[in-house]
């Protein structure tokens, strides 16, 4: 059985690799880019991506790296490698990049997508400062900022609060595949050490958080 990583990792690129593939504008194939966390992919995300794909030939999904996600306790629930693979598995997504920066501005400048798509909630008369920065960069090289309809709106945070996802096994599988470790290999190693005593070094960490109507904090 082909694993998720083996089947779809060819879609996951760095911004520099992607720029080399698509070339500079003007291009024969139009490129549209979306950016977000995509911690839990819900119907609103799907419609956002589908609408974006309908406006161009190639859809690039950019995700925020784990270290820059500070919203909520114990976020993200789904690690960046697994989030990238989840998006790569969608037929309408052509490429995925993991943004190592705290904003997508540098990657927009590198890739220069023909369109940069934002969700409907960002479409206001007075753009938020970050959205205005993105718009300025896109328009500077001749691109266009567009907004998806937002006919279905979900809150990822609300969904996670209802039922936090458990992806421990999937995260372990991604880690093992990245380092070329299989369960057969682990069994062979253990079988080769009969009578050996193994000492596992580590810390026991107990995490908890308190929550009230106004705030929540880690302890």
Describe the structure.
It is elongated, with a radius of gyration of 20 Å. The longest helix is centred in the N-terminal third of the chain and has 12 residues, at 43-54. Helix 6 (129-140) links the parallel strand 4 and strand 5 (144-147). The model is unreliable at 215-219 (pLDDT under 50). The protein has one domain (4-159): HUPs (Rossmann fold, 3-Layer(aba) Sandwich), CATH 3.40.50. It has helices spanning 4-8, 15-22, 43-54, 80-88, 105-111, 129-140, 156-162, 168-178, 183-191, and strands spanning 31-36, 58-64, 95-99, 115-118, 144-147, 209-211, 216-218. It has 9 helices and 7 strands; from the N terminus they run ααβαβαβαβαβαααββ. It has 219 residues and is of the alpha/beta class. It is 37% helix and 15% strand. The chain has a 5-stranded parallel beta sheet with strand order 3-2-1-4-5, sandwiched between helices. It has a two-stranded antiparallel ribbon with strand order 6-7.
Structure summarized in a few sentences:
By secondary structure, this protein is an alpha/beta fold. It has helices at 4-8, 15-22, 43-54, 80-88, 105-111, 129-140, 156-162, 168-178, 183-191; strands at 31-36, 58-64, 95-99, 115-118, 144-147, 209-211, 216-218.
Topology:
Layout: H1 4-8, H2 15-22, E1 31-36, H3 43-54, E2 58-64, H4 80-88, E3 95-99, H5 105-111, E4 115-118, H6 129-140, E5 144-147, H7 156-162, H8 168-178, H9 183-191, E6 209-211, E7 216-218
Parallel strand pairs: 1-2, 1-4, 2-3, 4-5
Antiparallel strand pairs: 6-7
């Amino acid at each position: 059985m082909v694993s998720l990583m083996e089947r779809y990792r060819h879609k996951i690129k760095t911004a520099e690799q992607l720029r080399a593939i698509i070339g500079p504008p003007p291009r024969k194939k139009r490129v549209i880019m979306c950016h977000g966390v995509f911690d839990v992919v819900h119907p609103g995300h799907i419609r956002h991506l589908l609408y974006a794909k309908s406006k161009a030939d190639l859809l690039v999904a950019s995700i925020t790296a784990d270290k820059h996600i500070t919203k909520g306790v114990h976020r993200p629930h789904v690690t960046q490698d697994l989030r990238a693979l989840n998006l790569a598995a969608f037929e309408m997504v052509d490429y995925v990049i993991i943004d190592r920066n705290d904003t997508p501005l540098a990657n927009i400048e590198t890739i220069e997508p023909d369109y940069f798509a934002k969700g409907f909630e960002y479409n206001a008369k007075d753009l938020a400062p970050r959205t205005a920065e993105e718009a300025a960069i896109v328009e500077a090289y001749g691109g266009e900022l567009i907004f998806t309809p937002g006919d279905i709106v979900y809150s990822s945070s609300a969904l996670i609060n209802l039922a936090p996802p458990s992806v421990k096994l999937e995260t372990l599988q991604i880690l093992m595949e990245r380092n070329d470790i299989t369960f057969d290999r682990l069994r062979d190693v253990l079988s080769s050490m009969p009578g050996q005593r193994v000492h596992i070094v580590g810390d026991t960490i107990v995490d908890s958080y308190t929550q009230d109507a106004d705030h929540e904090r880690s302890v």
